């Protein structure tokens, strides 16, 4: 193909400087307007979320404080149960100690009574033997 075979397209008219400046200004304004409204709406949405979340967090904080106080009261109740149980165990130990001491004392008394009974039996036998001897000697 030759250079003359190419169709010649008309060149678009070149814009004037004023038209270029106006187009540039319009494009920049539309970008700023779109960007500003998007950024601004995003920021407003975020600010709204922050305020809503702050209210929700405050509400949760109050509920948490209330439940913490309730938990503290429950802890106090359980501590009382533990203290009472510890006191009961100590008293049981005291009762056990007392029972062991009483048992030792009773064993000592039992041994003493056995010794007294043995001594009484010995004295009684000796007295009976003496009486029998005295009677036997008196009849002769």
Give a nutshell description of this structure:
The protein is mainly α and 140 residues long.
Q: Tell me roughly what share of residues is in helical segments.
A: over 70%
Shape: rod-shaped
| Percent range for β-strand residues | under 5%
Structural Rg: 58 Å
What is the typical, i.e. mean, pLDDT? 82
Give me the oligomer status.
single chain
The helix/strand series, from N terminus to C terminus, equals: H
- Main β sheet profile: none
Number of helices: 1
- Low-pLDDT regions: none
Question: How many strands appear in the DSSP assignment?
Answer: 0
Q: What is the CA-CA span between the terminal residues?
A: 186 Å
Walk me through what this model shows.
The protein has 140 residues and is mainly α. Helices cover 88% and strands 0% of the residues. The protein is built from one helix and no strands. The protein has one helix spanning 17-139. The longest helix has 123 residues, at 17-139. It starts with 16 loop residues before the first helix and ends with a helix.
